[in-house]
Amino acid sequence: MAGAANSSRALLLLLCALLYLARLSSGNSEVMKAVNITWSSINFKTILQWEPKPVNYFYTVEIDGDRLVRKKICIHTSATECDVTNALKDVKDVYVARIYSEVPNRDPDDFDIPPYEVSSEFIPYAQTEIGVPTIKSFEQKEKTLKVEIADPLTPYRFEGNGSFRSIRDIFKDDLEYTLYYWKDQSTGKKQENTKSNLFEIRIDKEKNYCFYVQATVPSRSTDRSSQKSSVKCTSVRRDELDGLELEVILIIVAVAVGIIALIIILSVVAYKCTRSKPAATKKESVPLNA
Ligand SMILES: *[C@@H]1O[C@H](CO)[C@@H](O)[C@H](O)[C@H]1NC(C)=O
Ligand SMILES: *[C@@H]1O[C@H](CO)[C@@H](O)[C@H](O)[C@H]1NC(C)=O
Asked: Biological process GO terms, please (predicted)?
């Protein structure tokens, strides 16, 4: 009897321990505050990111600006990021985000503010990364090289026609492009700036040029410049190239003709030698066979 009671108590203890462990590992009552909150923004497309992944609770993001009435977005999300682009349309405003950690089925009469964490400040105009500009077209004619840049687009649209605003539409004269260019196969790099999206530079005729562009917002103190675009090179027109390289081609042809002539002469000589040789060996071999 005493043995049975003991073992059932042991079983109960074991069950309790298991239940406790299960609770611990599922972490079901632990609501964590958001940490490592970062703004990732490029050409005014802005994503707020944070950690950790929630278990049995949710996050809600609230955007607050100096000129904005607080606005909740990504309500009750179990993700750890939120696209906040549409809440930051006033691009020169100073924003902060609060990230609330909320339990599901909260008592509606509970007016306590759920735990939250506040992000660093973010000013889109000053902090969004400038995307890599692309070279839309280029043309080399006589002594001018024309290069046209495609202004990177933002996610914001014009109200009238619904087309996307470019970063030029937002930065206006506060956006510059720099063209870095050099004569092909030389290392001397030159540069030129423009506040439009078109470069027209004076170059040497009949030489190939290579170049890339970079966008800059000069008013900024940090993150002023975009990454560099890919490098493009011109190739001067065929007829000009032919004129340029005629001498080279003539030399190659002359050398080739010389080599062929040499081969012919050598093979003729070799042929003559082999023809005269068997006669000689025959004469010598006759006495041996006989
Ligand atoms: C926050 O970032 C630090 C450094 O990158 C990292 O060590 C830490 O694990 C992160 N916190 C969470 C909750 O992931
Ligand atoms: C849309 O409208 C803006 C001005 O309201 C103008 O600058 C832009 O060129 C227009 N875009 C198109 C595709 O018509």
From this structure: blood coagulation
Beta-carbon contacts of residue 195 (< 8 Å; ≥ 6 apart): 173, 175, 176
Q: Looking at the domain 33-127, which fold is it? A: Immunoglobulin-like (2.60.40)
Q: Which atom of ligand 1 is nearest to the CA of 36?
A: 1
Q: Which residues pair with 97 in a beta bridge?
A: 63
Is the distance from the beta carbon of residue 25 to the nearest atom of ligand 2 less than 6 Å? no
- Between the CA of 88 and the centroid of ligand 2 the distance, in Å, is 22
What's the predicted TM-score (pTM) here?
Answer: 0.71
Task: Determine the average pLDDT of the residues in 89-117.
Answer: 89
84 and 49 Cβ atoms separated by less than 8 Å: no
Beta strands in 130-283 (DSSP E): 134-141, 144-150, 153-157, 164-166, 176-183, 190-194, 198-202, 209-216, 232-233
Please, which residues have CB within 8 angstroms of residue 163's CB and are 6 or more apart in sequence? 157
Our CA angle for 89, 150, 208, nearest 5°, is: 155
pLDDT at residue 61 is higher than 80: yes
pLDDT given for residue 153 in this prediction? 96
Among 2.60.40.10, 1.10.357.140, 3.30.43.10, 3.40.120.10, what is the CATH number of 134-242? 2.60.40.10
Q: How confident is the model at residue 266 (pLDDT cuts 50, 70, 90)?
A: confident
Closest atom of ligand 2 to 169 CA is: 7
Q: pLDDT averaged over the chain?
A: 86
Q: Which ligand is in closest contact with the Cα of 169?
A: 2
